[in-house]
Design a protein that fits this description.
The complex is a heterodimer of chains A (171) and B (300). By secondary structure, chain A is an all-alpha fold. Chain A is 45% helix and 0% strand. In chain A, helix 3 crosses helix 6. The termini of chain A are far apart. The chains are: A mainly alpha (171), B alpha/beta (300). Bound molecules: iron/sulfur cluster (2 copies).
Chain lengths: 171, 300
């Protein structure tokens, strides 16, 4: 059997399109300041309890532009507990959790979310709350002598969460 | 009376009205007037909606802050998640180019964010506005010897540069607040661990909660004092789930701090909605009978 031809393309090529798209997100560009010290890892609960999650590795993949590895259907991003320990610890103010949330924004742009996440988002977009009102809620509030909950002006919320037009907002 | 705009969020007013009742009952006794805001929405939550689109998240959060700005008041929150969203929004919108972008969105609804209302987590109102002494003086039913394990949760403390509540490596506010009621705070060995609620891979939060509950139980505390409604769910409903799943008997009843404060200020146990909890802090009843006995011997 002939030897496998020597691979010439195992050099990492930075996918700049991916990095540009990430940089468009709020605080999405912060990974650029990461010097891979690992200070974000020690107190990361997701790292402690998962064999696949590590914020330093995620930042490295961002630096390498490995968008395909980060943005698949099985993305590890949802393992993050949003505890903010990495944000607290990073000496470079990379805010790894914010980069991770920006990556989730990119996942969302591609229509990828776990069902429970999609469900809460839908409730918010329809009612302006993440836990909707109901007769049972009103009753409980009455029992404690609490004022009725104020109505969320959904016309305002809906306008606000519409994406900006591609040419930007007009003034 | 110092006046503050109240941002109740979603979780407490809909799922835990008893917590809101306790807040509305206790703050005025400590010289803090609650001003309700009309038309607030979800903060929006820093886990789910923020994952979809940070820009929309920021715009809706900024809208909520404009409601307090219109009243010329600082705003206080009773949920660590709301505090995270609103404090971060305040912080991010100190960047004028981002503020400009957000204000372009707000223009769609005729609003403008100005950055004139500060955000305060409710515990900082107790500590910095009311003060521990005033809390101590408001207590009619001292919780002498009650052992209260403390769990801070994550967003109250971190990121500390933005939240500005306490030292994330060695906080003290919850301990001092518990002491002011006459109780004894204890810190469990996993106090730094997250409750895991936001994580979307099921085994991770279960294992985390298992280790958390084990550490709490080791302290043999009477109750677990909490300040975050999300942690509360994990320690109440979640404590039952994890006990079953791991075949263990975890059983420390959690309580939201303001319900404990209201109880110490004299609200009857049965008025606090505690019977709705999976794990009920029945141990508090002893203080009701003790206080009743003390007051009847005084009047004799
Ligand atoms: S702590 Fe900051 S600089 Fe260090 S590896 Fe993590 S993200 Fe990079
Ligand atoms: S926020 Fe996410 S990445 Fe950061 S320490 Fe917590 S679990 Fe780890």
């Amino acid at each position: 059997m002939p030897d496998e031809p020597e691979k010439k393309d195992d050099v990492v090529k930075v996918n700049f399109d991916f990095r540009r798209e990430l940089a468009e997100k709020i605080e999405g560009n912060l990974a650029s300041f990461c010097y891979q010290c690992g200070a974000c890892v020690g107190d990361c609960p997701a790292t402690m309890y998962s064999d696949t999650f590590n914020p330093r590795e995620i930042m490295l993949k961002v630096l390498y532009g490995l968008g395909d590895e980060l943005l698949g259907e099985d993305s590890v991003m949802w393992e993050c507990t949003n505890c903010y320990n990495c944000h607290e610890r990073c000496p470079q103010e990379v805010k790894p959790v914010e980069v991770i949330i920006s990556l989730k924004n990119m996942l969302a742009d591609r229509g990828i979310y776990p069902d429970p996440v999609a469900k809460v988002i839908k409730t918010f977009e329809e009612t302006g709350r993440t836990t909707p009102l109901s007769g049972a809620v009103d009753k409980q509030r009455e029992r404690f002598g609490l004022p009725p909950l104020s109505v969320v002006p959904m016309d305002e919320i809906s306008l606000l969460i519409e994406p900006a037009p591609p040419e930007g907002e007009d003034n | 009376m110092k006046r503050y705009a109240f941002f109740p969020g979603c979780l407490i007013p809909t799922r835990h009205p008893a917590m809101e009742f306790a807040i509305r009952h206790t703050l005025p006794k400590l010289g803090i007037e609650i001003v309700d805001l009309e038309g607030t929405s979800c903060c929006p939550d820093p886990i789910y909606f923020k994952s979809k689109d940070k820009m929309s998240w920021l715009a809706v959060a900024a809208r909520n802050l404009t409601l307090a700005e219109e009243q010329g008041l600082d705003i206080f929150t009773n949920c660590s998640g709301c505090t995270a969203t609103l404090s971060e929004t305040y912080h991010l919108l100190e960047d004028m180019s981002l503020r400009e972008k957000v204000n372009q969105r707000l223009k769609r609804i005729g609003r403008e964010y100005k950055g004139t209302s500060k955000i305060r987590h409710i515990v900082t109102l107790l500590r910095d506005v009311a003060g521990y002494d005033a809390i101590r003086e408001s207590v009619v039913r001292p919780l002498d010897g009650l052992k209260v394990a403390i769990h801070y949760g994550c967003h109250l403390l971190k990121p500390s540069r933005i939240m500005q509540v306490d030292d994330p490596n060695d906080p003290s506010v919850m301990e001092r607040l518990v002491e002011a009621l006459g109780a004894v705070p204890v810190r469990h060995r996993n106090w730094y661990l997250c409750c895991g609620k936001a994580c979307q891979r099921e085994d991770i939060p279960s294992n985390m909660m298992h280790d958390l509950l084990g550490a709490v139980q080791e302290e043999e505390a009477d109750i677990l004092g909490l300040i975050c409604p999300t942690c509360f769910g994990q320690f109440d409903h979640g404590q039952m789930k994890v006990s079953k799943q791991f075949g263990e008997d975890f059983h420390t009843p959690p309580i939201y701090y303001f319900q404990l404060l209201a109880f110490a200020q004299g609200v009857p146990y049965d008025k606090l909605g505690l019977e709705r909890q999976r794990f009920k802090p029945e141990c508090l009843r002893q203080f009701e009978t003790a206080a009743a006995a003390a007051s009847s011997s005084e009047t004799e």
